[in-house]
Each structure stands twice: as C-alpha cells, then as structure tokens.
Amino acid sequence: MEFLMIAAAGLMQSFCDNLSPNAAPGFLSSLCKNENIATDLGAHLSSAANVWLPGSTTFNTATTRWSSLDAPGISVVVEVATENDVAETVKYANANNLPFLAYNGGHGAIETLGAIENGIEIWLGKLTSVSIAEDGQTATFGGGIRSKQVTDALWAAGKQTVTGACECTSLLGPGLGGGHGFLQGQYGLIADQFESLNMVLANGTQVTVNKDSELWWAVKGAGHNFGIVTSVTSKIYDVQNDGLWSYKSFYYTYDKVEELYNAINRYLGTGKKQAMNLMNYSFFFNYPAIDPNHPVIAFFILQQGVGAVEEKYAEPFEKIGPIMSTGGKGTYKDLPTWTSNADDSLPCQKLGLVNARFPVDLQSYNPSAQRLAFDAFTNFTQKFPAFNNSLVLFEGYSTQGVQNIQADSTAFSHREGNLLVTPLIIYPPTDRKRDLQGSRFGEHLRQVLYHGSGQDEMHSYVNYAFGSEGPEAWYGYEPWRLERLRSLKAKYDPKGRFNFYAPFDRRKVHSPHYPSRKKVYISN
Ligand SMILES: Cc1cc2nc3c(=O)[nH]c(=O)nc-3n(C[C@H](O)[C@H](O)[C@H](O)COP(=O)(O)OP(=O)(O)OC[C@H]3O[C@@H](n4cnc5c(N)ncnc54)[C@H](O)[C@@H]3O)c2cc1C
Ligand SMILES: *[C@@H]1O[C@H](CO)[C@@H](O)[C@H](O)[C@H]1NC(C)=O
Ligand SMILES: *[C@@H]1O[C@H](CO)[C@@H](O)[C@H](O)[C@H]1NC(C)=O
Ligand SMILES: *[C@@H]1O[C@H](CO)[C@@H](O)[C@H](O)[C@H]1NC(C)=O
Ligand SMILES: *[C@@H]1O[C@H](CO)[C@@H](O)[C@H](O)[C@H]1NC(C)=O
After folding, report:
1. Using CB atoms within 10 A as the burial measure, which of 38, 168, 372, 411 is most buried?
2. Which ligand is nearest to the CA of 122?
3. Are 178 and 114 in a shared domain?
4. The FAD-binding PCMH-type domain covers which part of the protein (predicted)?
C-alpha cells in the first residue's frame, strides 16, 4: 500500500503542526519536514503530479539506481507531470534551501552525485510526450523520454534519430553530455540533433535555448550543469533500407587477444577510415562455461543496410578461430537486444550492485596493452570472485558524423576519440575496503590502456566517468573551454544548484572511493 498521496497529506499535516519541535524525536521531525513539502509544494503542482516519501513502494522504485556506489541522498520524490511542475519544484527547493536533482533513467553513476544529502528528486518519468513536426524534419520529446520510447514512436512514422544504445537510459541523460549511439556515424551525437531545448534554469525560470542563445554551446556536452530540460526538439531522419542491420558475433579464448586486436586495427579501420555503416565492439568477461580459468573475449560486428555482415569484414575474424560465432539480420530495433542493451538485458537491471566505470578514449588498439589489461583482468577476477561479473568494454562506433562537426562548436570536446573504452567494475557492495579495492582495480586497468596508447591527455567521456577524473578530462584541456563554461556558470547558476553531475569546479569533485595517488599503480 502506498504510504502517501498528496490527498492523504492533510491528516499528517495537522499532526505535524501540533508537534513541538523540541520534544519531537529526530525521525518524526524529519518526517514532518517532508510532509510540509508534500502539502506546500503540492499546492503548486499540476493535478497529475505526485509527491512520494520514504516508506512508499513508489519512492523506492523512483530512487533505485543502476549503481549503488555514492548514490545521492534523496528524502522526497516529486513526480512531475508538466514542464511547469519542474519550475515550481526548483523554486520551492531554492526557497527552502534544499538541494535537488533531475532523475531520468537512473543510470547516471558518477561519484559526484554522492554529495547530495536530503535532496529533492525531480522525477521526470511522466514527461514522455512525442510530437513529430508536419514537415517530418524534427520531433519534440518530453524531457523524461527513454531511448526506446523515442525509437518506437519514430519508427511507427518511418523515422529515426540518434539515441544511446541502451533502451533503458533516457534521451537527455546521455544527450546533455554528448550522447553516443548506433546512428552517430551518419548524424553525429545526440546533442548534435538538438534544435531547441525548453529548460528550467537554476532560479526556476523557464527558457527556450536554441542556436541564438548564449547557452547553446554549453548545453551540447555540459548541459547537466545548467538546467533541467523539460522538452527537446531534435532532428529526425527517414529510415532507410527498411532499417536493415546485420551482425556477427565471435567468442575467443584468452590466447587470441593480440591476434584479435591486430585484426581489428587492420581490417576494420579506425576513425574516418572505418566504414560509416560498420561498427564493432568487444568486451572481456568471465564465462566459466567456456573457460573456468580465464575470461573470454566477445567481439561483435554490426553493419547497417546489408542482410549479412560482408565477408571481407567477417572473414579475418573467422580465421582467428573463435570458439563460437553467430550472426543474424534484423532491423535497427534489434540492435539493443543483439548487444545486450535491451530493457530486459542484464545491463538495464537495477540489482543493487556497484557499477563503476573508468573511461578513456583511444585512437586505436595497442595489442600488447590489450594483453596486459586482459591478464590483469584475469588475475584479479580469478583471485577476487566478488568482482568476477566485471567487464572491460571496447566500443568502436563509427565516427564520421561526430568528427565532421567542428570540435569548438560544442562543449562536447572529445570528438576525435575513435574508441570508447572502459573497464566496468561490478560487485555487490559490502564496505569501503571493497569499494577502494574495486576503484583501484578499475583505475589500474584504465592506466594500462592509457599508457599503452601513447596519448598525452586522458579523455574520459563524462557520462561514463567515475568522478575522480576532473573537469579537464571531461570537458577538454584547452583552457578556453573551462573558462567559457565557468563564466556561463557564474551567470546562469551562481549558487551552483546544478553542481552534482560532473561539475566544473574542481573543489566540488567529490570522490571518496578514489584511491589516493600513491596507491594507483601506473604500468611501465
Ligand atoms: C547500460 C548502459 C548503457 C549505456 N549506453 C550508453 C550509450 O549508448 N551512449 C551513451 O552516450 N551513454 C550510454 N550510457 C551512459 C549514460 O549516458 C549515462 O549513464 C547517463 O547518465 C544515463 O542517463 P539516465 O537518464 O539514464 O540517468 P539519470 O541518472 O537519471 O541521469 C543522469 C544525470 O543526468 C542529468 N539529467 C537527466 N535528465 C535530465 C534532464 N532532462 N535535464 C537536465 N539534466 C538531466 C541529471 O544530472 C542526472 O543526474 C549507458 C549507461 C548504461 C548504464
Ligand atoms: C572496431 O572498432 C574500432 C573503432 O572504430 C575501429 O577502430 C575498428 O575499426 C572497429 N571495427 C569495427 C567494429 O567496426
Ligand atoms: C598475472 O599473474 C601471473 C601469475 O601470478 C603473473 O605472472 C603475471 O605477471 C600477472 N599478470 C599481470 C598483468 O598482472
Ligand atoms: C564468480 O565466482 C563464483 C564463486 O567462485 C562462481 O560460482 C561464479 O561462477 C563466478 N562467476 C563468473 C561469471 O565467473
Ligand atoms: C533567472 O536567471 C536568468 C539567467 O541568469 C535571468 O535572466 C533571469 O532574470 C532570472 N530570473 C529571475 C526571476 O531572477
């Protein structure tokens, strides 16, 4: 039974009004503070909005996150139903000096979120409207829409647009930080599709941000720091070739690491040399049914517009001698299922586990660094089984659409990165010791791959970031970038209300589970 609906709040209110603040035990006074939110704020919200307090099933559902490490402290959930509800909630939070956070798919996992205590969650799950413009060039989506809802609604009209690969993440959670997806080779990032955004600013004012706005540059890559997007108008495209895609997957044993990554470099090409309709990705993972003593490597090739992955791409990988391989054809809508990113796939589930990522962009594979990382991954996950569901992910999206856009035209700065690489350290949470052990392991794997690349800047995709990397790694090292972001921040959010998701101010970077410098092992 739900503990609270606004309608029931009146009764509780009179109880709270009669409670002497000094005599009340702590838990009762905090309960009453939340009750006040329900009644005071409730009066300003639309009729379909709800306020949920701890103890209700809906509160639990609404606050459950994909990763349990450093989850934000939420004491009340406001389930908004209109764009104006968002503005009212922000104004209320400010007037009462309470921190607040937009909640969408709940897959954000950066440690900086942990700085929120007693916060108001602004749950966007009801803002899922879709309307396709008459000319078929754009569509307007509610700020809480998920990838799958975008794809399904457009598909019904023969249209598509860039979303994240995962059905369960929102459009805007990824999009405000850039947003990678299967169609980026053709059209660019999610943020590159934006035509205009309705946003609630830090002071609760509602504005429309478009190419003529000062914030336009900033919202395309650093948008989480400037407001809550209540709706977005984005470019959409005709589905071509009936949306035909095909895939091949290969599983390799531990002895094939060098051969595989040499072949990817050689036959699939990176960056602009990689065909626009071709993508590949791979991951290291433990699969005891194939090999109980070592992890194995899964490798996927995805190709658009063909009924089967072309032989010239598949054959070199057959020759390496996979232990298993499969393939198939379908449509764009099958990609999440093939790649384990569908609503019912494991990565979409919220299981109370820690999911910590340590991203680094690479230009191409260094097979000996891949070997070192593989062996380190083997040693650690064999020795510490609590971590044996971890993965190391290597995503090779096609990049033309991303790289064709001027890098200085958006706050998303890492357009030249060809490969999106990240260890994903997964474990059941127990204590701080295990958290430190996990983050040390993830950082070690990242350092091995980074040092193997010979690159001299660590670029870490903000939406995968662990939280310890810092603003240059997220937003770019050219000094003008952070200067520009900080000066916009000083104007639009001087009180730092949106400082919980990869903030620009280094002092706000809160990373309790990051090992101290001394302990980080750097490979040589
Ligand atoms: C299984 C999985 C697959 C993924 N696949 C991809 C992928 O293919 N491409 C990719 O780019 N990333 C991908 N990611 C990373 C993804 O971009 C981030 O996890 C992102 O934070 C998820 O957004 P969310 O809405 O689900 O999470 P939330 O935790 O709800 O949102 C994250 C943060 O975004 C902000 N936010 C969300 N909505 C709004 C809004 N409307 N207005 C303003 N701020 C908002 C808030 O600060 C919030 O804390 C993936 C992540 C997972 C877990
Ligand atoms: C595999 O990924 C990398 C990144 O693009 C790329 O270098 C290689 O060409 C890709 N192969 C695939 C999957 O297309
Ligand atoms: C893994 O463990 C083996 C055996 O203990 C050791 O020889 C090897 O150096 C380790 N490799 C890495 C990369 O840690
Ligand atoms: C992880 O370790 C446990 C305990 O040793 C084992 O039962 C399980 O099969 C392992 N899982 C994987 C994916 O390796
Ligand atoms: C809110 O902030 C914006 C941007 O700084 C400003 O233009 C606007 O006047 C402010 N609104 C109020 C009511 O203070």
Report:
1. 411
2. 1
3. no
4. 69-239
Tell me the pLDDT band of 524, cut-offs 50, 70 and 90: very low
192 and 79 in a common domain: no
Ligand 2: distance of its center to the CA of 399 in Å? 10
Last residue of a domain, one of 207, 238, 269: 238
Confirm whether 21 is domain-assigned: yes
Domain containing residue 335: 243-470
Alpha carbon of 309 to ligand 2 centroid (Å)? 14
Residue 59 has pLDDT above 80, yes or no: yes
DSSP-assigned states of every residue in 265-312? IIII--GGGS-TTEEEEEEEE--TTT-SSS-EEEEEEEEES-SS--HH
With a Cβ cut-off of 6 Å, ligand 5 is lined by 201, 203, 205, 491-492
Write down the pLDDT at residue 114: 92
CB contact set of 73 (below 8 Å; sequence gap of 6+) = 116, 117, 118, 119
pLDDT of residue 275: 76
* Ligand 4 touching residue 385 (CB < 6 A): yes
Residue-level pLDDT at 512: 63
Q: Residue with the nearest Cα to atom 14 of ligand 5?
A: 203
Phi and psi torsions of 85, nearest 5° = -55, -35
